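Retry 2 of 3 after timeout on previous attempt. Resubmitting structure tokens to design endpoint.
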């Protein structure tokens, strides 16, 4: 490995440091060796965090009889003694599963707010919002979020990095025969635990540090194919590991074997700075630089990763986790149960005391029911049972106390597991308890919202830069809630610089479904909500779209139309629509920020749609009155549009009482201003129409 850069004197005699960043590009240092040196220097300050991660990882998966070996400096298992009981009552795993399930209860929701109020910026923001939602769905960010939660829960600190893969996406054009086709390219995102990355030592704000290094252990064959190496690289990631540590790394890759071999791949990311205006991304395998490019990202003031912490630590960029605090109590719980089980094993059996002279008689005993068993009546003591010793009450209760202590540390109680406390049935009471129980996870939810907001911003900025290079429109499928997927075409120029994404904290904050249901019932009883769609929305019932489609199909259809309005797509009103329900839902939409963000043309599109419903409703009313004037029974006949039943009315001339004799049989004017018809004329026309249909 190369030595660190040395100091030298300048012309004025002052010392100056030749840093790695200034000499890397010129090739004056061993580049691969320097990357390895920086990596070793950075992880030397993360020994505690990395040890806690592996201990928490082991405890979480049931390997809880461990100790840090002073000889190897790694984890090792406590030697197993077959004569002693070694119980493992894993309280951490069910609590963790409950917490992660609570955190994943609600899906990510992205918003992009425009920086200017003009139409072009508003349209760009709406387009960018649709694109980032499509990326989150296509790249499976919900799975990424769950993996990130587990990583930060075990290590206190985790990260997501984003890169550009030029070999992904659709083929744009074919080059000469034999060359690889040119593709659109796409971003890819990867989560990392604290053992898989490090940033510049001493950085207070890791996302704005000068450099960071990603350390990934991969199978040697995969590394050889990935970087087109001539020979198989060595298994330096697993070389020298203790057997148990190798077992842990194997378990992470779906194997219980300890013989897995992995190669360490270091990727060094250095953003542009005064020392190196170009920046770089350098990949090292087996002390060799296998790939090096200039900084490929549009942002230069921050790195291509986002950090999330479970519990912040003052003056450090790493965080802590409550799992570390619960681990010693879990150890005591295992010891306590082991002691109780061992006592049950050695002293928990009832034994029969018999005189020595009765042994021969006992040996002749059978399992015959009601068998007579004589004993020597000359002996002063009869055969009797010796009861096992009773354990003290505190000894029996100790495991329950330790389990309750773990629950308090991790913030998991009865209401977290779905058990409502006794005598509390109101939605308000359940809401208060749910909020109190979710306090430990609320901060992690806020961290995740901020992390994915920054990730979405990085992704949009990368898309904007890369797609503006090709000038080719890309296609994305956007899943609109309550609607079929919509295909949109876009380019980075269409964003108009609107790339700042955000995930509202309230959108992913966990909520108790039982509390939501009780609150909806209370609001229904107080008549604060009066319709089924309102109840479904407040209660946050699962499968809302299916329930709404069955109970209120017109509301469901109107909301799908509202989603189309957001993309400047018109929906045609139909005769069979419930026009009152449609007008109400569209007016609700006109009072939202989405409507205000539409351009003038988009708003006119919504307004014209509502007016069309108004005209159709008037026509429906006119037809009903016309049919009722012909025959009151016809007004009650079902129609294809399921229009309202309209009772016949007497026609009078305004201000003159009874209509003239020649107008008493006239029907009201048509909805579009057509002259009215007499009853006889209308009947003749109706019969003629029926004959034509026949």
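Retry 2 succeeded. Sequence:
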């Amino acid at each position: 490995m190369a030595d660190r850069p040395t100091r030298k004197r300048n012309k004025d005699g002052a010392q100056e440091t030749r840093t790695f960043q200034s000499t890397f590009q010129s090739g004056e240092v061993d580049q691969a060796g320097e990357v390895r040196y920086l990596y070793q220097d950075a992880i030397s300050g993360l020994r505690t965090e990395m040890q806690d991660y592996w201990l928490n990882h082991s405890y979480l998966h049931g390997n809880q009889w461990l100790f840090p070996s002073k000889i190897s400096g790694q984890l090792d298992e406590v030697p197993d003694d077959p004569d002693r009981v070694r119980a493992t009552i894993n309280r951490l795993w069910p609590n963790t599963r409950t917490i992660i399930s609570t955190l994943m209860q609600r899906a990510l929701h992205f918003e992009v707010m425009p920086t200017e109020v003009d139409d072009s910026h508003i349209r760009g923001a709406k387009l960018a919002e649709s694109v980032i939602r499509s990326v989150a769905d296509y790249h499976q960010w919900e799975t990424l979020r769950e993996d990130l939660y587990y990583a930060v829960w075990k290590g206190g600190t985790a990260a997501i990095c984003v890169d550009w893969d030029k070999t992904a996406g659709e083929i744009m054009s074919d080059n000469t025969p034999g060359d690889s086709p040119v593709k659109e390219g796409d971003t890819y995102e990867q989560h990392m635990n604290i053992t898989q990355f490090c940033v510049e030592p001493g950085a207070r704000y890791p996302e704005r540090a000068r450099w960071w290094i990603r350390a990934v252990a991969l199978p040697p064959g995969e590394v050889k194919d990935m970087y087109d190496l001539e020979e198989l690289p060595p298994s330096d990631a697993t070389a020298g590991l203790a057997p148990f540590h190798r077992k842990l790394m194997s378990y992470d890759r779906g194997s219980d074997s300890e013989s897995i071999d992995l190669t360490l791949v270091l990727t060094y990311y250095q953003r542009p700075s005064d020392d190196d205006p170009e920046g770089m991304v350098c990949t090292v395998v087996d002390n060799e630089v296998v790939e090096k490019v200039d900084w490929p990202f549009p942002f230069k003031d921050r790195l291509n990763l986002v950090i999330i912490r479970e519990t912040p630590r003052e003056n450090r960029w790493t965080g802590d986790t409550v799992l570390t605090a619960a681990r010693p109590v879990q150890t005591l719980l295992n010891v306590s149960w082991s002691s109780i089980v061992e006592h049950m094993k050695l002293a928990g059996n009832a034994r029969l005391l018999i005189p020595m002279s009765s042994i021969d008689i006992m040996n002749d005993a059978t399992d015959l029911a009601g068998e007579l068993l004589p004993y020597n009546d000359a002996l002063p003591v009869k055969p009797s049972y010796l009861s096992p010793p009773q354990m003290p009450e505190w000894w029996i209760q100790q495991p329950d106390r330790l389990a309750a202590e773990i629950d308090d540390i991790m913030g998991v109680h009865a209401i977290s597991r779905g058990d409502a406390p006794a005598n509390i049935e109101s939605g308000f009471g359940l809401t208060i308890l749910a909020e109190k129980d979710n306090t430990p996870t609320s901060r992690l939810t806020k961290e995740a919202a901020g992390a994915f907001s920054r990730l979405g911003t990085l992704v949009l900025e990368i898309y904007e830069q890369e797609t503006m290079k090709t000038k080719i429109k890309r296609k994305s499928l956007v899943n609109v809630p309550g609607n079929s997927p919509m295909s949109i075409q876009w380019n980075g120029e269409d964003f108009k610089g609107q790339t700042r994404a955000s995930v509202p904290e309230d959108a992913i904050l966990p909520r108790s479904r039982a509390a939501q249901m009780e609150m909806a019932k209370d609001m229904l009883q107080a008549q604060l909500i009066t319709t089924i769609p309102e109840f479904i929305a407040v209660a946050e019932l699962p499968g809302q779209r299916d329930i709404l489609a069955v109970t209120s199909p017109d509301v469901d259809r109107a909301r799908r139309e509202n989603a189309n309005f957001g993309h400047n797509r018109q929906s045609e009103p139909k005769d069979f629509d419930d026009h009152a329900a449609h007008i109400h839902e569209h007016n609700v939409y006109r009072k939202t920020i989405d409507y205000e963000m539409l351009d003038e043309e988009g708003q006119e599109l919504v307004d014209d749609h509502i007016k069309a419903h108004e005209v159709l409703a008037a026509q429906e009313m006119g037809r009903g009155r016309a049919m009722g004037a012909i025959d009151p029974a016809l007004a009650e006949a079902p129609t294809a549009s399921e229009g309202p039943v309209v009772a016949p009315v007497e026609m009078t001339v305004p201000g003159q009482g009874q209509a003239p004799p020649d107008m008493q049989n006239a029907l009201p004017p048509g909805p579009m201003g057509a002259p009215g018809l007499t009853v006889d004329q209308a009947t003749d026309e109706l019969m003629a129409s029926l004959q034509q249909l026949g």
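Attempt log closed. The chain is about 45% helix and 15% strand.
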